[in-house]
Amino acid sequence: MDEGTQRSGWRWPFQRSNPQIKDLPYKETGSTEDTIKSERILQEDREKEQARLNELASNYTEPEEPPVTLHLPLSTLLVSSAFGIGFMSGLIGGARQTALVYLAENAHRLPRTVQGWYFYNKTKYYRMILGGVQQGSRTGLQLAGWTGGFCLLDVMAEHARMRYLQRTPNETSTTFTPFAHILGHWSDGSMAGFSGALVALVACELISIDLVRLPRPMWGRIALLGTTTGGLVGALRDLRQHVLERTDPQRPHII
Q1: Which of 54, 101, 164, 188 is an S-S bond match for 158, by CB 3.0 to 4.6 Å?
Q2: Cα 156 from chain centroid?
């Protein structure tokens, strides 16, 4: 900066007016006692908050997870159970029958050495397994098919009953017959059992030959047996629904 500029008093931007003046040190306002008191209050608040959090943590218990339950329709359980029972029954019977057939086929050529007996028994066991699985599959599918047909007839009977008992002229009013509270799944099962027995009798009458046709008195017994069995299955469904509604009325149940 030249001498003329210094004499005129002109200053560059951001230049101190008096370079001799130094920055004054920061002087804290307020007394030391107030600062200590405020820090003590803050510390007490922190301790109280920490104590409250510790108490909440000690009293906290994780909510119990509800048990995992699998709800399946009764028709699915019946069909799968029928297939399992039929498969096991056919497996045992088929294995025994295959073993007897194998013994009869090889009765005239029994082995005479240890190695021969080894392969003889090994082949017999393989055939028993194969015959048992084949017969079990056939029996299981047959029983599952008949059970599935019964379940289909039961669903149709239930749908017809609901259509008959629950007539809705509009969406707000519902008309029930006086005996609506008496009917239930037992009536659906009885109707399905009677229909299934009737279909089976007609099929046997049309398909079978004269030598193996059922006599006429057997028709009534078979129809009565089908009706009673179907009604018993439906009554078990009603009992199951009643028990489930008493134990847990809030949860919807698939029956």
Answers
A1: 188
A2: 24
